[in-house]
Amino acid sequence: MNDVAIIGVGLHPFGRFEGVSAMQMGTHAIRAALADAGLEWKDVQFAVGGSWEVANPDAVVSLMGLTGIPFTNVFNACATGASATEACADAIRLGKYDIGIAIGMDKHPRGAFTVDPTLVGMPKWYGENGQYLTTKFFGMKANRYLHDHDISPMTLARVAAKNYRNGVLNPNAFRRKAVSEEDVLTAPMLNHPLTHLMFCAPDEGAAAVIMCRADIAHRFTSTPVFVRSVEVRTRTYGAYEVNTTFAPIEEAPSPSVFASRAAFESAGVEPGDIGVVQLQDTDAGAEVIHMAEAGFCADGDQEKLIAEGATEIGGSLPVNTDGGLIANGEPIGASGLRQVHELVHQLRGTAGERQVPGEPKAGFALLYGAPGTAGATVVTR
Fold first, then answer.
1. SS3 content of the chain, % helix, strand, coil (to 5)
2. 228-243: pLDDT as tens digits
3. What's the CA gap between 210 and 7, in Å, rounded?
4. Which residue of 104, 172, 211, 243 is surrounded by the most CB atoms within 10 Å?
């Protein structure tokens, strides 16, 4: 079994780019990752790619060069990035290839994710009238969690304001304007307790991560970052979900819990070893919930930790240092690889103004995708 190292990362900025296709954004990210690793496209032996909007991400090779490499398309909703990372890392770990690339790209229209609900068995009109993957689910879930664990809406406002501040420091972010906690809290209410400014936005972007056998990483970089584990899990019970609620509201622990536990166990590290964290923050409530589900605190402890600044860039548990989804938005296929992009720069010490102090040695990323798939990744220096 080979250890796996990340030797190159690339990103197309997230936002709105009229006249630029998802595929073109994908090639931008690929070229940036190749430049970061000091490689050419012909050096890549295989690829894994994911997208929501692009039916065949493998077609990106037509723009990069027809070198004949194997290309596997993957999709797991918001957990697509973790799935691509896992497939790429495992192929190298098992010795089939030496160098590979994971790619994600998407170009979503404005508004809620209303694209083709028939893909998950819902009628077309369900999306057309705004009922597909809307804010309702997120609001109900956050409201129940805050009630059960005595957490105030101000905590949600603090999470969102922190992510907007971090986005200001990120030249690739979609939203790059600081927003005060008060403005977040008093913004128009979409679904209680979540206001408009507590949500991310579907948008456009691409990301790419190049990996290789760890024993050859020194040929390409003096600062490799090692993929210690990637674990993907699905639900064990219930369907308290975004788009297909056909089972009782009562549910077993989220797949985020099981994916996180498995990732830590496989990597041989504990949550306390992690110096920088990326959590799925489709809304501010999700970041709060995932802090506990991933094992970084007990349910309810988030209120105090967040109020004391633990999750700030200079805090004891920096979360979403690049602004997360709230500042970056979410092009689904690229979102998880953006998390890895940020962790790599943080562990290299090249994150610029948003660099976590103290030279973090390990990073963690968690994705959660409807209708109940979670992916957790641990990387180290």
1. 40, 20, 40
2. 999 999 887 655 455 5
3. 6
4. 104
Cis peptide before 188 (omega within 30 of 0): no
In terms of Cβ atoms closer than 10 Å to its own Cβ (0-12, 13-18, 19+), residue 31 is middle
pTM tops 0.90, yes or no: yes
| 82 burial type by CB count under 10 A (0-12 exposed, 13-18 middle, 19+ buried) | buried
Q: Which CATH class is domain 133-197+229-380?
A: alpha beta
Instruction: List Cα–Cα distances, 311 to 61, 156, 166, 316, 359, in angstroms.
Output: 39, 13, 11, 7, 16
Residue range 112-141, pLDDT digits in tens: 555 555 555 556 665 555 555 567 778 888
CA-to-CA dists, residue 38 to 41, 69, 224, 242, 354, angstroms: 10, 19, 13, 42, 25
Q: Which of 21, 90, 31, 27 is nearest to 54 (CA)?
A: 21
Distance CA 326, CA 333 (A): 16
Q: Above 70 in pLDDT, residue 173?
A: yes
Rounded CA separation 45/100 (Å): 6
Q: Where are the domains of the chain?
A: 4-111+204-226, 133-197+229-380
Domain 4-111+204-226 bears CATH identifier 3.30.420.40 = no
Of the candidates 10, 13, 53, the one whose C-alpha atom is nearest the C-alpha of residue 333 is: 53
